[in-house]
Amino acid sequence: MANFTSFSDLRALCLDLPSGHPAASAAVVQREATLTKPPRSLGRLEELVAWLAYWQGHAPPRLDHVEVLIFAGNHGVTARGVSPYPAAVTAQMVANFSAGGAAINQIAKLASADLRVMPIELARPTRDLTVAAAMEADEFLAAVDIGYRAVPEDCDLLAVGEMGIANTTAAAALCAALLGGGAGRWAGRGTGVDEEGLARKQAAIDAALVFHRGILGDPLVLAAALGGRELAAIAGAVLAARRHHIPVLLDGFVATSAVLPLARLAPAALDHCRAGHVSAEGGHRQLLRELGLKPLLDLDMRLGEASGAGVAVLLARAALACHTGMATFAEAGVSGTED
Amino acid sequence: MANFTSFSDLRALCLDLPSGHPAASAAVVQREATLTKPPRSLGRLEELVAWLAYWQGHAPPRLDHVEVLIFAGNHGVTARGVSPYPAAVTAQMVANFSAGGAAINQIAKLASADLRVMPIELARPTRDLTVAAAMEADEFLAAVDIGYRAVPEDCDLLAVGEMGIANTTAAAALCAALLGGGAGRWAGRGTGVDEEGLARKQAAIDAALVFHRGILGDPLVLAAALGGRELAAIAGAVLAARRHHIPVLLDGFVATSAVLPLARLAPAALDHCRAGHVSAEGGHRQLLRELGLKPLLDLDMRLGEASGAGVAVLLARAALACHTGMATFAEAGVSGTED
What we know:
Two copies of one chain form a homodimer.
Chain A: H1 7-15, H2 22-32, H3 44-56, E1 66-72, H4 88-99, H5 103-110, E2 114-119, H6 137-150, E3 157-163, H7 167-179, H8 182-186, H9 195-211, H10 219-226, H11 229-243, E4 248-250, H12 253-265, E5 273-275, H13 282-291, H14 307-325, H15 329-332
Parallel strand pairs in A: 1-2, 1-3, 3-4, 4-5
Helix pairs in contact in A: 2-3, 3-14, 5-14, 6-11, 7-9, 7-10, 7-12, 10-12, 11-12, 12-13
């Protein structure tokens, strides 16, 4: 807990943002122009390589150690009937991750990425955010710290995701509190609630907004009051990645809402992040637009557990393979443009 | 040349379309519902697995032998100054594919796909489509036949692409002739022509539409008059894939325009095809919309050579890995929904 013993410690860290390495991305752009293809014809794949280089500070960038990190937490608001699944599923899915049976296990293996899962106090859910702060300051800061410390310093690319029954309710409440629009704008069907469940979810979010109206405005205090331990840990991991020059692929609605407070504190806080995908959970597309993040994939996925970010790792690998493996015009004896 | 000795032979083949295997896709859907995730939460990845099974007739489907096929051809219309690259680049890039130096080499390797490149009479470009039929009937049918015979019967998934300096001009002319809208709707910057080059390209397309106005209406005759050998071969390969129960990932604007004549002859002709991506070449998005194909990827790529389809193979692999590798709710001891 050395890093953050108070909100003001954490706020100071959020505002002290290391910058990237323009020389590394410039070297990537320079090499791209020599490769046997029309200029910029690999589109976002080329941008991905330059982005990796910019944050790693290497040209070419490396993808030797790609890490997928999943944080899991439980939520008191589950009692409001906001999810079709019981809270016990969070721990059951953590066991499934450990046994290799979840979607992200298959995706991480295909993408040659290491997968680590960190359950955070699953037996101690957050409090029901409709009638209390979900976390006290010390609980929130401890969860941020867990995420911060979970990031290996030698990692080349980090994909972050989450698991937590009812956490789309917490995410939607956080988005509504920080971006406005009420429950109607941000509540989606999550893992698949029916009409009545969706109505209960919206009611819970609106109740939370009323209960916490006195603290609207402070992003970190709101993250503690409305978020969850896994969301706090994701924010910590994204802060640590910035510190250690590690680019980040964000997953879906919950993972993105987890870092929204960072962006509200400092607009440049997510410059080292890319949206791995846009989820079918309706709020995600709006949230990405608010954050100025253009998703790499749009596949109607809405599973969480870093699955969308994990698939996006494959794009990063394709991008880097082209950048490092392709021949130059000179090497291949291919003529350039006539003009 | 046993298969097509006349347009009417080919037309008959285009209309005789094997159907898929609903039992196989139903078995996929049934297994998906048992896997440890909310129903349909892997979105288009789940649809991909069902689509593979539907056309292969196996559940689960297989991706043991994925083939990337690139056809290359040269175009008389190059003389009209429609590309910034000289025609010699087609053969130079074929050599680059053989030497392993192109983007698709890196992508195919990453996707564990076999890559085959088939140059078709590069020393004998098509005629200039502004003043003649690009190909005579026998030349066109021979190119279709090359594509048809190139498809290995034991292939599980085929990705088709092309290489041919000036072939976006041929593709745009074909789209304009079959779908209307003139050169303005379909001509894009291809490999990167400047303003003057774009004007020359549009002028060439409009001239071709006037010259060939007498044959507007017959898709195969138009494909011969306005297309190219590599486009004809792609059409042949897509027909062969349908015959051999092989699903197909289409690449960009040129590859998709190559199969447009098939869809104009028989609306169901492309049911075994998916659009691997949507290209940054402007006409491609419109063409996909006309064909009812929703692209899997949208990455501002515009390279051709099957690069977009090749990246989409990675999505198919991720989809199948989840489908076959994930635990069921029963196996993992995970609770289902409460309702």
